[in-house]
Design goal:
7 helices; 21 strands
Length: 350
């Protein structure tokens, strides 16, 4: 069960972030110059920047009983400025007083005293991995948020006239053009209706830099790590392959699989801290236990279990710290309460 509840996005949330993205789109010369390789149309630009909505939605929920709120970075920057702003610029008290964590000075942001730097990472629900580029490993806290958006979420704020049935009639395809379609390759039109649901955001957790270093795996440029994918128990295996090859000793449930010189991300096995490995290769391994196990949230029966991996075929040209999302959520030391207590202390200090 998830530790934090999903927060449904409202149309007001959507309108506000779209307004910011429109301002950013208009101000960003690199994205309106036709000769630029980075040029985007508005739809792609919205897709790229939409997840910025996450930090406000989540912190508004976490701080709903507080006399302050977070201040996000909604500044617009010239292309020759440093892109080094933290995601959270400071706090705003109920009396409108601003407590800056950083300040902008001639093209760059600098930290105020010992106040925290916070990095926000929002990922899709169907993404298995979390990643932080090595140059970003300078912050004090890292917040991970899972987004689960409807594919047509923008539909919710279109004007209602777009969904007028007259357009369905005007766009009707004439059957006289069809000689034969026995394979049903022509898809019939259907009435379009306005979507009511936008989607949701869910906090995975907030983790300190030290915890990130302990639980994430640094993958340098070109390294393609393997990560937990699935398990199987219903299979036949030859008796000769059932001899114990080695034993895996778990560190409080954390499994660090090793095979040749490949890189494997840690994953979580609960229920037995001393497992027999009876067969192994690059893409999978078999374990034997006389106890029921819980492997990345999947419950197994006593006996032989095959654990399978996928290879993360990354083409990134940078060093990156990577972890399995489900592993961090289960095994990471969540510092959400610690950060909020720190906010409380800062708010009282000023």
């Amino acid at each position: 069960m998830d530790k934090y509840n999903k927060i449904e996005l409202s149309k007001e949330d959507l309108r506000k972030i779209i307004y910011f993205i429109l301002m950013k789109f208009r101000s960003d010369a690199l994205h309106v110059q036709g000769t630029s390789s980075k040029r985007d149309f508005l739809g792609g630009y919205i897709e790229r920047w939409f997840n910025k909505i996450a930090e406000t939605v989540i912190f508004n929920e976490l701080l709903k009983n507080k006399d302050y709120e977070i201040v996000s970075d909604y500044f617009l920057y010239a292309n020759d400025s440093d892109k080094n702003a933290p995601d959270i610029l400071g706090l705003k008290k109920s009396n409108k007083q601003i407590i800056p964590f950083v300040q902008y000075n001639e093209g760059t942001w600098t930290r105020c005293e010992d106040l925290p730097r916070i990095e926000i990472k929002a990922i899709r629900k169907d993404q298995a991995l979390l990643g932080i580029r090595e140059p970003q490993m300078i912050d004090d806290y890292y917040m991970f948020i899972e987004s689960d958006l409807e594919e047509d979420y923008l539909n919710t704020i279109f004007e209602k006239e777009i969904f007028n049935k007259k357009y369905l009639k005007e766009l009707e395809i004439q059957k006289e053009f069809i000689k034969s379609d026995s394979k049903n390759q022509l898809i019939p039109h259907s009435e379009m209706k306005q979507t009511e649901k936008i989607g949701s955001m869910r906090l995975i957790g907030i983790y300190t830099l030290e915890e990130i270093k302990n639980k994430f795996t640094l993958c340098t440029k070109g390294v393609k790590p393997y990560y937990f994918s699935s398990i199987t128990q219903e299979f036949k295996i030859k008796i000769k392959d059932m001899l114990e090859k080695e034993r895996i000793l778990l560190n409080n449930g954390m499994c660090n699989y090793k095979y040749e010189n490949e890189i494997y991300l840690p994953f979580n096995i609960q229920g037995d801290n001393n497992l027999s490995v009876i067969k192994k290769n690059k893409g999978s391994f078999y374990i034997n236990s006389d106890k029921p196990l819980n492997i990345e949230g999947i419950k197994t029966n006593p006996g032989i279990t095959k654990i399978e991996f996928k290879k993360f075929d990354r083409s990134s040209n940078w060093d990156e710290n990577i972890a399995l999302k489900s592993f961090i959520e289960a095994m990471g030391n969540d510092s959400t309460d610690e950060l909020i207590n720190l906010f409380d202390t800062i708010e009282k200090r000023y």
